[in-house]
Design a protein that fits this description.
This protein is mainly beta. The longest helix is centred in the N-terminal third of the chain and has 4 residues, at about 175-180.
Length: about 775
């Protein structure tokens, strides 16, 4: 299902264009986490992706939009909590920046970070992250964090507490042999009505002394231990009676839930008839329906327990751990619908689910957000779009909009050597697949868009494939380059039929650096004429590598022959003398068939460049995500004389490792693989009118956001605005007026809009807002 989720104005020094971003993935594979209802807005749900995005749904999870994108593709947003009508909290992990791996508060109206809790840096630590946290809602300067840090290959847990918003921190617990038997921590909590009443749920250690719940009534100055010897995990308070609290067991032993009616002093086991089978016994979540505290759900390993009478009686529902198509091995989060008794959203280890009977039965919530490793578009026939999902591949006929999936691996299956796909640009429905198993791989030719295995081209090899190119004059012949400095020409009419090509640069055996063949161009008018990129140089042959001629004039000043790469070589379809290169250092062009090259755009890790097949003088290029580069798109409308950059901020900061293109008059479509948002399609209107650059948007404030009737606009001192324009997701101007501090938007339908404020001198400011 396609959904247009954002309409953007893309800005450069002299050009502005419009682009549309669509989610074009298959809803069957969507994986989102921490699904949480808004407490007072009906049908509003928040969730997080597998990486760096917070999502919003205004129709009870039937469709989703980007809500907040963390500005680092490495980030993994975790443990989202909606604290009240206006604020949510979450922490970020997995970035290389310690000061980003912290706890955040996000204002739901302005969609801005309002507070960041950054605990102390542990001396000598090479990496630090948060595992769990709690915030005292009556005073959000009070927080407790369960963090971990790594020194060398070992990691330890540490618990911090702050009462002043992170200005100062008290260390409450350190995973240490002398102090705490090296026992790690699973969870932490604060009494909802007493900020000095703290709880630390312990896990296991290397000694016989494990588990236990540490309780403090004086903000961590002193602790007593209860439930000693028991590994503990989930902690929950009854919001309607905070003397009542529940705690669940961890991974070790059997599943159990304990209940206290005097805020953790005394505990009793809840008599739930747990299933003894299955390997997963931890209790990850205990959720009490705040609107009806008789409803309780426990998400344990391979089963769910529910009560409808406040915990007096329980029904449990085991799930088959051997069912590869099942929806549940363990759960991590549950959220009751405040407007529909019995409906609960459950985050599992597999897909997001919904239950209409308190958790007894589950159904999958379809959505298009998941890891997609590759994308590819071929204009052959009806037009075909391919993308990766669960180590397999999804094919979409772009005329009929029908999807079919092949080679999908069920969630929970493991492969150390994932599949790679290379659709043929000249033979409709033909795809080349590298299928790894352990340290070995097989190279297949697939037919019928991946449905059939037609040929085994190479078996039992252990290296990666750098590039696959079909001979346009003889489509039974393909050039394939490998990551071990081997290049072969395959005859696809036979199994394992190939000849090795002598490359122009002969590599020495490792550990000497390998100068790899990363790109190939086969002349469509003369297939004997081939250009390749090896390292940071371009070479030409007319006899399958018997003789190579270097064609690198103009590259040497910018590209290192060993350290850099020429990733892509493309020819202008309107002028065969013109070529463009995508390289590690930018885009180069030649107007004399590669005799000389000129650097026309500087950027790190440019992986593709292509001439439009529909608009003369238009080129589009892509920068992939890497340690040195943020995924973004570059395009030129004047044959490379100037370039417009569509930055990562305009693409929701997605991480992307593959992009491909299609064209129609006036439009360039860029397909992006992403780390957590499925495949995206970015449609660029290359004929958009030029306007001035925007200026700093931070001088403009808007609230409330989302809004229903009015949008208040605040300007910093000295800022003057003349007109207001509102654009919908199609880029259409739907409201235009002179400046007012209180804009009436009551006539707009629900959705996302762009607000553009234009000043006296033509400068403008752009803000996003939501009408609910």
């Amino acid at each position: 299902m396609k959904r247009i989720v954002l309409s953007l104005f893309l800005l450069s020094l002299s050009l502005v264009s419009q682009a549309q971003v669509e989610l074009v993935g298959d809803d069957n594979y969507g994986r989102i986490l921490d699904l949480t209802y808004h407490p007072t807005i009906q049908n509003r749900v928040y969730a997080v992706t597998l990486k760096s995005h917070i999502l919003i749904s205004n129709d009870n999870g039937n469709s989703w939009d980007f809500f907040y994108s963390f500005p680092n593709y490495q980030a993994r947003v975790q443990q989202l909590k909606v604290l009240d009508d206006d604020t949510m909290s979450f922490f970020v992990a997995e970035t290389s920046n310690h000061f980003e791996n912290t706890l955040y508060l996000l204002d739901l109206n302005s969609v801005t970070i309002t507070k960041q809790f950054t605990p102390p840096v542990t001396p000598g630590a090479t990496y630090e992250w948060i595992k769990s946290y709690d915030i005292y809602n009556a005073n959000r300067d009070v927080a407790i964090l369960n963090s971990s840090f790594k020194i060398g290959i070992d990691s330890w847990d540490i618990v911090y507490y702050t009462a002043d918003g992170g200005v100062s921190w008290d260390m409450l617990y350190l995973q240490d042999y002398e102090l705490n038997d090296n026992i790690s921590i699973n969870n932490v909590a604060i009494n909802p009505i007493n900020p000095d009443h703290l709880f630390i749920a312990r896990a296991n250690g290397p000694t016989d002394n494990d588990g236990g719940l540490l309780v403090s009534t004086d903000a961590g100055l002193n602790f007593t231990e209860v439930l000693d010897g028991i590994e503990l995990n989930a902690i929950t308070f009854d919001e309607n009676n905070t003397d009542t609290m529940y705690i669940g067991t961890g991974w070790k032993g059997v599943s159990n839930v304990y209940k206290s009616t005097n805020t953790g002093v005394d505990w009793e086991i809840i008599p739930i008839d747990w299933d003894a089978n299955g390997p997963y016994k931890q209790v990850n979540e205990i959720e009490i329906n705040s609107n009806n505290p008789d409803d309780i759900i426990v998400l344990a390993g391979d089963e769910i327990a529910i009560s409808s009478n406040g915990g007096l009686d329980w029904d449990n529902y085991p799930h088959d751990v051997d069912d590869s198509n099942g929806l549940y091995l363990f759960g991590t989060h549950a959220s009751y619908n405040p407007f529909n008794p019995g409906e609960v959203l459950i985050t599992t280890d597999k897909y997001p689910t919904r239950s209409y009977n308190g958790g007894a039965t589950l159904e999958q919530i379809d959505n298009p957000f998941y890891f997609s490793k590759f994308v590819d578009y071929t204009a052959l026939g009806d037009g075909h779009f391919y993308h990766g999902a669960q180590s397999g591949m999804v094919h979409k006929n772009t005329l009929t909009d029908e999807d079919e999936a092949f080679h999908i691996i069920p969630l929970g299956s493991f492969s150390v050597n994932a599949k790679e796909y290379f659709p043929d640009k000249y033979v409709e429905g033909r795809i080349y697949m590298r299928n790894g198993s352990g340290s070995n791989a097989t190279f297949y030719m697939l037919g019928n868009h991946g449905a059939s295995i037609d040929r085994v081209l190479l078996g039992y090899f252990g290296v990666n494939i750098m590039d696959v190119e079909t001979n346009p004059s003889n489509t039974d012949e393909i050039w394939v380059s490998f990551s071990n400095s081997v290049t072969r020409i395959f005859d696809t009419t036979q199994d394992e039929s190939f000849v090795d090509i002598n490359l122009p640069v002969i590599n020495q055996p490792p550990p000497a650096p390998q100068i790899l063949h990363a790109s190939t161009f086969i002349d469509p008018l003369n297939s004997d004429h081939v250009l390749i990129g090896q390292g940071g140089r371009v070479f030409e042959t007319f006899n399958e590598g018997a003789l190579w001629i270097e064609k690198s004039v103009g590259l040497a000043d910018y590209l290192d022959p060993a350290a850099d790469y020429v990733f892509d070589i493309t020819q202008n379809p309107n002028n065969p003398n013109e070529f463009a290169l995508a390289t590690t250092q930018g885009i180069f062009m030649s107007d004399n068939y590669g005799q000389n090259w000129e650097l026309v755009h500087t950027a790190l890790n440019v992986r593709n460049v292509v001439y439009s097949s529909a608009d003369e003088n238009t080129l589009v290029a892509s920068v992939y995500t890497s340690g040195a580069s943020e995924a973004h798109i570059i395009y030129s409308m004047n044959n490379g004389e100037s370039w417009t950059v569509i930055p990562g901020s305009m693409l929701e900061y997605v991480g992307s490792g593959k992009m491909d293109y299609s064209f129609e008059p006036g439009l360039a479509h860029v397909y992006m693989s992403t780390f957590d948002s499925g495949p995206l399609k970015v449609s660029i209107d290359i004929n958009a009118l030029s306007i001035n650059d925007p200026v700093d948007n931070s001088v403009i404030g808007i609230y409330p956001n989302p809004t229903r009737n009015y949008l208040n606009i605040q300007l910093k001192d000295g800022v003057e605005v003349k007109t207001i324009e509102v654009f919908n997701l199609d880029g259409q101007t739907i409201l235009e007026t002179e400046f007012t501090e209180k804009l009436n938007v009551s006539g707009l339908t629900e959705g996302l809009y762009l607000l553009r404020l234009t000043g006296e001198n033509g400068q403008f400011y752009v803000k996003k807002f939501v009408v609910k």
